[in-house]
Design goal:
heterodimer; A: mainly alpha; MetI-like fold; two-stranded antiparallel sheet; 13 helices; flat; B: globular
Chain lengths: 294, 304
């Protein structure tokens, strides 16, 4: 879409874009380029510049069991937390969309968790799920040793997933509800006249019509599970126990800033970038499909 | 509601109520834990009746983590990001939508691509950009090898590198450098009728005049939505402030949470930790509750 009426003095026009261009050049393109450069070079230990090593950084990372462990952990985390957050949100949104008495309350309240900073909710859940105080302690009293995120990797992963899903249920809920409410009421009513029940209507009318939203949220949730998980992991488990929750962004951070391995961290960043770019491209393909729908 | 379905309605209420509890329970537990004393908070099971030490704990958390100045820092940063985003995105969108110049589509795509890579992913090199204050021009020249680019780059580097670690600009500027808001404005500007522009031009208004007097007042809703979302997003940033603010005087409230985690082997002071969590949760909660309309609108519009 283009404007028919524009302003003639295009030199002024470019000036309006300059602040943004300077910013994205300095803080986006330059660092992104730098990451590519570092990933292909190795920094000398006591200064003296970088030496070109080609794809060696990638080779050594991909040969590293810790890295594959981190990828696996990220995938498990992304898969389960996205699944949980989306299914719970969809159920709640579909039920809220029935607009029974009091549904305004859910519309207002269910979004609250999304406003909370990931580290803050992580600290809250660290307490709620703590094995010796909090609420899982009750379970531990009945079955001693049942739950200990500090020692058991699966428990730690479960805690991180619970905290993340809690935040994103509200986010997904808003989008699902908006999508459901955009479906013309007359469609639902016509189906009801034809004798279909609530559940039948959901699967045959509402669900197909909101598939674009589902795909969109799928991509967003997976991307966010890569980034927004950092605060949760850092506060709740610090990547432990035994690297069980060492997700990709957390590993980049600890390798780059604690291990001071810039080249390795840069190579990991590049792999993560490619992953996210691939996801974004998938997303745009579905957005295109959404255009064809209407 | 198109038919009578009493059983289904019962389950609808039941499930929705469970969802409500699921959302609210953590807030309630945090608030209750913050009101207990050391012994009660570690009771198994913890009593769900509020204790009497709420204000004492809040005060202790406040002084332990020195939250006063940190909350102020968080406010400055979040306001800075929100304001910067609202202004810079509007300028860029205006340029892209209302002018025809060579390279316009290139600029559009250059900005569009920034949507793809979040700060967390390119965190190490972005940190280096902000940190390498004394990186000499020569290094950059050697790295790039293109003379015209060097002029551009070194100019930028000199201006922006100095003193960006532990400074508000170092915190704020990299967070503004994405495209989120630009596309929100672009979508809106495209819906503004052409007749309005024609009328303004006929009355002798130039580009700047039209932008300030007509376009910006029309975009008030977008600004509120974008500002709310960006404020929350910036307030909740964790990784970036953690790296940039090594100096306590610039620390953010959210990064202070780490100081509140009870030490292994020390007294499990969960009541203090929860009181601190509550304080840090409160400002974004207030924004969400008070600005809910703008928040939801911004969320859906920016797809953030």
């Amino acid at each position: 879409m283009e404007k028919r009426v524009t302003f003639g003095r295009w030199t002024i026009g470019i000036l309006f874009a300059v602040p943004q261009l300077i910013l994205i050049f300095t803080f986006f393109y330059w660092p992104a380029g730098q990451a590519v450069y570092w990933s292909l070079t190795l920094q000398q230990p006591w200064g003296g510049g970088n030496i070109w090593v080609g794809l060696d950084n990638f080779r050594s990372i991909l040969a590293n069991a810790d890295y594959w462990n981190s990828i696996t952990a990220s995938m498990i985390f992304a898969g389960i937390s996205t699944g949980l957050a989306m299914v719970i949100a969809l159920v709640l949104a579909a039920l809220t969309d029935r607009q029974l008495a009091g549904s305004w309350l859910y519309r207002v309240v269910l979004i609250w968790p999304y406003g909370i900073a990931a580290p803050a909710l992580a600290l809250a859940f660290r307490f709620i799920l703590a094995p010796e105080a909090g609420f899982m302690a009750v379970v531990n009293k009945v079955w001693p040793g049942f739950w200990d995120p500090g020692l058991d990797g699966a428990d730690a992963m479960a805690s991180v997933i619970i905290a993340f899903s809690w935040k994103y249920v509200g986010y997904n809920f808003i989008f699902f509800l908006a999508a459901l409410q955009a479906i013309p009421r007359s469609l639902i009513e016509a189906a009801a006249m034809d004798g279909s029940g609530v559940i039948r209507r959901f699967w045959d009318i509402q669900f197909p019509l909101i598939t674009p939203t589902i795909f969109f949220l799928l991509v967003i949730n997976i991307t966010e599970s890569f980034q927004d998980s950092f605060g949760i992991v850092d506060i709740m488990t610090a990547g432990g126990p035994a690297n069980a929750t060492n997700l990709m962004v957390y590993k980049i951070y600890s390798d780059g800033f604690k291990g001071l391995d810039y080249s390795g961290a840069a190579a990991q960043s590049i792999i993560l970038m490619l992953l996210i770019i691939a996801l974004t491209i998938v997303q745009f393909r579905f957005i295109e499909r959404r255009v064809h729908y209407r | 509601m198109v038919e009578r379905t009493p059983i289904l309605n019962f389950f609808t209420h039941l499930i929705l109520f469970a969802g409500f509890v699921f959302c609210v329970a953590p807030f309630v537990i945090v608030a209750i834990a913050a009101s207990h004393n050391l012994k009660d908070v570690n009771d198994v099971p913890m009593s769900l009746l509020p204790g009497s030490d709420f204000w004492v704990n809040i005060k202790t958390a406040w002084t332990t983590a020195d939250l006063g100045p940190k909350l102020l820092n968080s406010f400055i940063m979040a306001f800075g990001v929100a304001a910067g985003k609202v202004i810079i995105s509007a300028l860029t969108a205006f340029s892209i939508v209302y002018f025809r110049y060579p390279g316009r589509m290139l600029i559009f795509w250059l900005i569009f691509i920034t949507l793809m890579l979040p700060l967390e992913v390119r965190i190490v090199p972005t940190y280096a950009v902000v940190a390498n204050v004394l990186e000499p021009y020569q290094t950059i020249m050697n790295l790039t090898g293109l003379s015209w680019l060097i002029e551009k780059i070194s100019g930028v580097q000199v201006q922006l590198s100095l003193g960006l670690l532990n400074s508000y600009s170092g915190l704020i500027l990299p967070l503004i450098a994405t495209a989120t808001g630009t596309f929100l404005y672009r979508q809106f500007f495209l819906t503004v009728p052409d007749e309005l522009t024609e009328a303004a031009r006929m009355d002798g208004a130039g580009a700047l005049r039209f932008f300030v007097d007509i376009l910006l007042p029309l975009s008030r809703n977008n600004m509120a939505a974008l500002g709310t979302i960006m404020f929350l997003w910036a307030w909740n940033q964790y990784l970036w402030p953690l790296l940039i603010t090594t100096d306590q005087s610039h620390a953010m409230a959210v990064t202070e949470l780490k100081q509140l985690i009870p030490n292994v082997g020390g007294a499990p002071e969960w009541h203090i930790a929860m009181a601190g969590t509550l304080i840090i949760m409160l400002p974004p909660m207030m924004v969400v509750v008070l600005m809910q309309r703008w928040f939801v609108r911004g969320l859906i519009a920016t797809e953030k």
